[in-house]
Amino acid sequence: GYLKNPLSHPSSQFSGPKPSTTGEVPLQLFLPTLPNSASINHRPPFPAKHSVTVRRPFPLSHGTTTLGFIFQGGVIAAADTRASAGGLVACPAVHKVTPIHSHLVVTSSGSGADCMLWERILTREIRLYQLRHKRRLSIRGTAKLLSFMLHPFKGTDVCVALTLCGWDKEVIYVCSDGARLQGDVISVGSGSPYAYGVLDIGLRGSLSKDEAISLAREAVFRATHRDAYSGNSVDLFHITKENLFFHRLYHSKSFFKFTTCWYLFVSLHSLPNFFCTYTSLH
């Protein structure tokens, strides 16, 4: 089931549960109900002792390599495409970079099911906010909203780590305990130490578009050589003021095969009912 939970926030980007004097409709949130809890606001700090625990068939080992950084030509978001279940490569072609709307993508790490659920919840809430207020929520406001929604699940088995990369030229990391961090470069996952090693050497604000794409590709690619839970291909998004550009880079033992896909979206002030054009270059 879902629990209707009005959001009250002092920021001007959020509307409280009370009627607004300007006629704006208050923002309503619909969050998944916590187990054995009648209300999000009255849940115990830790799961109840009498709660039923279901044993997993095997321990979950989370591993991935995702990154996002800012440069003069926009924002780059990249990730590998390997989904692992313990020591098993469950899927070699998973999308870990997800477009939320025409100027925002989210990189995901953690539990695959949890990440997909919360990406869908976030997409819905942003769309509802835009329909109610006739304007799109900013990247920073989106991160605050996601942090607020995730915080009640602190201490549970929810495992979500999302990095928001958007045209406000902001890269913000939000995890399942509600923590929110902002920076010019953020890498998350078991392969992130190796990716940081490449990014720290080559990242600078004056990079051209081709140099930034090459650097992000190299950072993820090198991480896949050292991290057992990262691998296969590299998904990369370039976010600009006008468009999202998507690149999937396939690699084998000794070479890359480049496939570039352009997703052309409507302008910044339009609703996100967009049309997509797909072009493939080999």
TrEMBL record:
Q: Which SUPFAM superfamilies match?
A: N-terminal nucleophile aminohydrolases (Ntn hydrolases)
Kindly indicate whether the keyword Glycoprotein belongs to this entry: no
According to the record, the residues making up region (Disordered) are 1-21
Q: Where is the composition biased (Polar residues)?
A: 8-21
TM helices/strands, residue ranges? none
Catalytic reaction equation(s): Cleavage of peptide bonds with very broad specificity
Subcellular location(s) of the protein: Cytoplasm; Nucleus
Task: Note the superkingdom of the native organism.
Answer: Eukaryota
Q: Which GO terms describe its biological process?
A: proteolysis involved in protein catabolic process
* Record InterPro entries: Ntn_hydrolases_N, Pept_T1A_subB, Proteasome_bsu_CS, Proteasome_sua/b, Proteasome_suB-type
Q: Where is the active site?
A: T64
Any one Pfam family match given in the protein's UniProt record, by short name: Proteasome
Q: What interactions and quaternary structure are annotated?
A: Component of the proteasome complex.
What is the similarity comment for this entry?
Belongs to the peptidase T1B family.
Query: This protein is called what?
Result: Proteasome subunit beta
Q: Which organism is it from?
A: Seriola lalandi dorsalis
